[in-house]
Model the fold of this input.
Amino acid sequence: MDYLIAIVGGYLLGSIPFGLLLTRLAGLGDIRQVGSGNIGATNVLRTGRKDVALATLFLDAAKAALALVLAREFLSQDAGYVAGAAALLGHCFPVWLKFNGGKGVATFFGTLLIGIWPVGSLAAALWLATAYVFRYSSLGALVASAAAPLIAVAFHASPIGVGATLFMSVLVWIRHRENLARLIKGEEPKIGKK
Done:
């Protein structure tokens, strides 16, 4: 029952489409009509509004962190991991937007940085280094998410913690499959390109 509560609560928190809400409030229209069409911070950045993109990044991470903290506080540590992973599922496939949400990177890091901070910190460092060197946000996300489960094992995370990390990593890769195809073809837009 604890895990069911964590899944439902985490999913609902994660499904709040902050990128869509903030761009509409800022008078930027429907973010789904810009760039890649997704609701995450990287796509919001393509509007040219760094402030709105930063707010989206923070809130998309915070909703997963909040789901994890609430479940950990009222249920258990492992339920917290489950809630964080469910928040990522909600962000990527929100029921309110016909299951077409964001790529999940900020939400992924929001869960890991609060849930298993050494894993989140190292994965974030990998993302930053890869994105800085190659100027592709998607490549940074793919590298960081691929490494995260291995880092979780290295830091002796609980089996549920490792499983939640692996689940989230798979989701990030699924949501980035088109980016991966564009990276291979050399057609992926670089960071900062509108």
Notes: The chain has a mean pLDDT of 92.
